[in-house]
Specification:
Layout: E1 3-8, E2 29-30, E3 34-35, H1 36-46, E4 51-55, H2 61-67, E5 81-85, H3 99-104, H4 107-112, E6 117-122, E7 125-127, H5 132-141, E8 145-151, E9 160-167, E10 170-178, E11 185-194, H6 195-208, H7 213-224, E12 229-233, E13 238-240, H8 244-252, H9 257-263, E14 281-282, E15 287-289, E16 292-293, E17 298-299, E18 302-304, E19 307-308, E20 313-314, E21 319-321, E22 324-325, E23 330-331, E24 336-338, E25 340-342, E26 347-348, E27 353-355, E28 362-364, E29 369-370
Parallel strand pairs: 1-4, 1-6, 4-5, 8-12, 14-17, 15-18, 16-19, 17-20, 18-21, 19-22, 20-23, 21-24, 22-25, 23-26, 24-27, 25-28, 26-29
Antiparallel strand pairs: 2-3, 6-11, 7-13, 8-11, 9-10, 9-11
């Protein structure tokens, strides 16, 4: 399988604005010790894709810090490896207009590749998928583009970028920015097409002022017969972080063993940057139930159905429930946090109460000290 990868780091996501103010979607923490790009990168590496371009535009310092030399994914190599594609690669420093414009920044990189096929993947979808069968099916199927999609089991409330009516692996209709209904297919943000076709379409669309990948290439191309589209139905566990409530709900879903086992398959491990952290320490009087806890935490209080990032401290007499607490936060004795998302380095002083709801979680920004 001669394939390369392009990862869209999530330059813009309206629904995730409160938690991506200082970072890309790709570097958004998920599951305590992971970032969302870890799942996409690991899927590619586990499938033998080792030439990967990561397109980004702004707020990408945390992403670069996380990836480092990419040795934790075995991608610090002379041939192949990861290449960060910043805005100045194309001379474009304007605002975000669409994925096709993102891909235009990757043109010089795409032209240097020797790969026959390109796998394009978003970082807003969390899944563990073997990509080799997807590429092989695409190569054998004769379609211009193959889209990985999941069968929708119940009506969704959140809008998806692409939704399909389909019989088997042949789409009948394509809907854009649509809340999927039971029985339809929702795109998982993974696309396979030939490198030559991708380069051709990017150059063609750039000359015409087209910027939207889903609308201009996929929907319009399908409706006019300009391109042929195939589906690759994926029946594994998929979590889509398209809004803040979804991000909270999906983070807490990792306490469900079936979902956790579906994402963390030992045959296809999810890699992340290794930190020199001591194991988490639990005090004699603490209470911890249905939690995901990363390295280096000190827990002396009560934590229920929550996710704790690296180096979090929960003091005796503090309580946390239904929340995501990112790295290096401190919850002081007497504080209560419920249905909330705390960004890195937040300190909640004693006696403070932070409480939201599952559909409208309370959000505390990076480095803020919450006092009475």
């Amino acid at each position: 399988m001669n394939a390369a990868g392009i990862i869209l780091s999530g330059i813009y996501s309206d629904g995730l604005d409160p938690v991506t103010k200082h970072r890309t979607v790709a570097s958004l923490p998920f599951g305590g010790r992971y970032r969302q790009i870890d799942f996409t990168l690991s899927n590619m590496v586990n499938s033998g894709i080792v030439s990967i371009g990561v397109i980004t535009k702004y707020n990408y310092q945390s992403l670069i810090d996380h990836l480092g030399s990419c040795q934790d994914w075995d991608l610090n190599r002379r041939r192949g490896g990861v290449k960060i594609i910043p805005p100045y690669a194309s001379g474009d420093t304007g605002g975000y207009r669409g994925k096709t414009e993102e891909l235009r920044a990757a043109l010089p990189y795409l032209k240097t590749l020797r790969a026959d096929w390109v796998v394009i993947a978003d970082t807003g979808t969390i899944c563990n998928i073997a990509l080799r069968p997807v590429v092989e099916k695409h190569a054998a199927g004769g379609k211009d583009i193959t889209i990985v999609a999941s069968h929708v089991l119940c009506d969704e409330q959140t809008v998806s970028e692409l939704v399909f009516d389909a019989e088997g692996d042949v789409p009948g209709s394509i809907y854009l920015n649509y809340a999927a209904r039971k029985g339809q297919y929702s795109s998982d943000g993974i696309y396979v097409l030939s490198r030559e076709l991708l380069i051709e379409k990017i150059e063609q669309f750039a000359s015409r002022g087209y910027y939207h990948f889903e609308r201009d290439l996929l929907q319009q191309g399908f409706n006019t017969g300009a391109i042929s589209v195939g589906l690759y139905p994926f029946d594994g566990k998929v979590l889509k972080n398209r809004s803040v409530p979804e991000y909270l709900r999906n983070s807490l879903a990792l306490t469900d063993r079936s979902i956790k086992d579906g994402l963390f398959n030992p045959e296809r491990p999810i890699y992340t940057a290794v930190r020199d952290e001591v194991p988490s320490r639990y005090g004699d009087g603490c209470f911890v139930a249905e939690c995901t806890v990363a390295d280096g935490c000190v827990v002396n209080g009560t934590v229920a159905r929550s996710v704790l990032g690296r180096g979090v401290t929960i003091e005796e007499g503090a309580s946390v429930a239904g929340s995501v607490i990112m790295d290096s936060c401190v919850i002081r004795s007497g504080a209560h946090v419920e249905n909330a998302i705390l960004d890195r380095n937040v300190e909640v002083c004693g006696g403070c109460v932070i409480q939201g709801s599952p559909d409208a979680p309370a959000i505390v920004g990076k480095g803020i000290k919450v006092e009475k």
